[in-house]
Task: structure prediction
Amino acid sequence: MRKLCLLLLAVLLLLPAVAVADRGGPSGGSLVVSGASARLTLSGNGLIFGHLGRGTITVVGDYRPDDNSALSSVSGAKMKFTGGNVVYSGSDVRFLFPGGRYTLIVDGTGIDLSAVGSGKLTALGKFLSDDGTVAVDGGIPQSIDSVSVLTYGKGNSSSAGKGRNG
Result:
C-alpha cells in the first residue's frame, strides 16, 4: 500500500514538472529509483522526494532552495550535524527537497525516490539478490548492479549512462 501511495504521489508531482520541462523550462528530466539496496550519491537541481526503509541520508554542504519559501522536509529520522553536513538516520524515513541545488548521499535499504530536473546519480549496490532498479528520463528500468554513473535531464546525451565496466 505504501508503494502504491508513493507511486501515485510521484505521478502527481511529475506530471506538472514534465509539462514545464517540455516547454523548455530549466528542468528537463527525471530519475526514478525503486526498491534499492545501495549507496546512491545524487547531485542535481530540481525536486527530489522519496522513502528510505532503513539507513541514512546525508545532505552534503547546504541544500540551496530555488524559492526561500520552499521548505525541505525529512520525517522518521534523527538529525545530526557531521562536519559541514546534515545526516538523517532511521527507518521508514520520508523526505522532500522541493526544488533547488542538492547533493545527497542515500545509503540503505528499501530506497524509493524520484527526482525531476537535471543531475547525476552514482550508484553502488549492496550486491544482494535484488538491489533495485533505476530509470532515467522515462527510459527502461535497469538494475542498480549494472549502473555506476547516470545523468538525467538537460544535457543528457544518453539515458543509458555508464555501466560498471564502461
About this structure: Residues 2-152 form one domain. The radius of gyration is 15 Å. The chain has one domain: 2-152.
